[in-house]
């Protein structure tokens, strides 16, 4: 009986968390695209933003690898 109550409580907590997260995701979703995106400026589109972030990450990783190589060479 105790195990059944524990499972029911866990399911209730999961349901509440899912409901709250859905509410938060709806609040984060943009109501409409900005006018610049509609006019053809693709900088604000999510796919392009993801590509830019990936490019910045790749550049940062390369800089870190270069610094590590310099540090290893100086030792």
What does this structure look like?
The longest helix is centred in the C-terminal third of the chain and has 29 residues, at 46-74. This protein is mainly alpha-helical and 75 residues long. The protein starts with a helix and ends with a helix. It has a domain at 45-75. It has helices at residues 2-28, 35-38, 46-74.
Main beta sheet strand tally, sense and closure? none
- Order of SSEs: HHH
The low-pLDDT segments are none
Radius of gyration: 23 Å
Measure the end-to-end span.
Answer: 66 Å
Number of helices in the DSSP assignment: 3
In what range is the share of β-strand residues?
Answer: under 5%
> Which range best describes the helical content: under 10%, 10-25%, 25-40%, 40-55%, 55-70% or over 70%?
over 70%
Structural class: mainly alpha
Beta strand count:
0
Mean of residue pLDDT values? 83
Basic shape: elongated
Task: Name a few traits of the molecule.
75 residues, mainly alpha, 3 helices, elongated
What is shown here, in short?
By secondary structure, this protein is mostly helical. The protein contains 3 helices and no strands. The longest helix is centred in the last third of the chain and has 29 residues.
């Amino acid at each position: 009986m105790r195990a059944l109550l524990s499972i029911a409580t866990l399911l209730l907590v999961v349901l509440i968390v899912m409901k709250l997260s859905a509410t938060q995701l709806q609040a984060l979703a943009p109501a409409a695209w900005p006018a610049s995106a509609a006019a053809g400026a693709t900088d604000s589109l999510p796919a392009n933003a993801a590509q830019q972030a990936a490019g910045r990450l790749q550049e940062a990783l390369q800089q870190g690898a270069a610094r590590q190589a310099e540090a290893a060479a100086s030792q």
